[in-house]
Amino acid sequence: MSDVVLSLANAGRTYPGTPPVESLRGVDLTVRAGELVAVVGPSGSGKTTLLNLAAGLDRPTTGSVRLAGQAVENLSDRRLSGLRAYALGVVFQQFFLMDHLSSVDNVANGLLYRGVPADERRRAAAAALDRVGLAHRAGHPAGKLSGGERQRVAIARALVGWPALILADEPTGNLDSVSGAQILALLRDLHSDGVTLLVITHDATVAEACPRRVDLRDGRIVADTGWTE
Ligand SMILES: Nc1ncnc2c1ncn2[C@@H]1O[C@H](COP(=O)(O)OP(=O)(O)OP(=O)(O)O)[C@@H](O)[C@H]1O
Ligand SMILES: [Mg+2]
Prior knowledge:
By secondary structure, the protein is an alpha/beta fold. The chain contains seven helices and ten strands. It has helices spanning 47-54, 77-87, 103-108, 118-131, 147-159, 177-192, 204-209; strands spanning 4-15, 21-32, 36-40, 62-67, 70-71, 88-91, 165-169, 197-200, 212-217, 220-224. The strands form two sheets. It has a six-stranded mixed sheet with strand order 6-7-8-3-9-10, with helices on both faces. A four-stranded antiparallel sheet has the order 2-1-4-5, with helices on one face. The N and C termini lie close together (10 Å). The model has no long low-confidence stretch (mean pLDDT 93). Bound molecules: adenosine-5'-triphosphate and magnesium ion (MG). Adenosine-5'-triphosphate is lined by residues 15, 21, 23, 41, 43-49.
């Protein structure tokens, strides 16, 4: 059996309020190394909450979240940051690139929290940019790239340290259909290379292209096609 990269056991997240919002309830999910998993569900079903828990950006109010073998709820903020720096790459819908920095410097920033020397960061960043087909835009300020190119830079930044898991929140959500198809092809290509990916998506084409699909409704998993390899 392959290594488990991410597991949620009875994981829940309730936001305080009157009444409190049970954004995620009793979720059990195991992702193994090498999987490409799509998480789908209507607006408000808990997709981003799930991503935030998986990314260690938020902590569960019930149950447990294990990332690369470590229970995030038991780690101090400092140790959690360390774990995230080594185990995780995240691709956000809004890219979150620094527009004035070049593509290669944006990607190199993906290694900032590992304490890697600058010249090594740049070398790794150049290789990651090449991997996503953007070597020819290495010196371009990120703010001058097209939407599809910006998303490639964001993927390269998530990929640059070869983390155990890449999480992506609506990676095609802000793109036209041609750029979206190219990003989907890239994600599938990374999957064939053995990269582990969890992709949150509203896009049926993206979900259909993933070997495994998990459906969320009202904070619960209502369907999971399961592990296929
Ligand atoms: N910080 C918060 N405080 C209170 N309620 C929240 C908070 N974050 C999310 N929620 C609520 O939790 C539920 C799930 O939110 P979440 O953002 O996970 O949904 P989603 O599936 O990502 O939706 P979308 O597709 O619209 O992005 C929603 O009802 C939302 O209003
Ligand atoms: Mg969301």
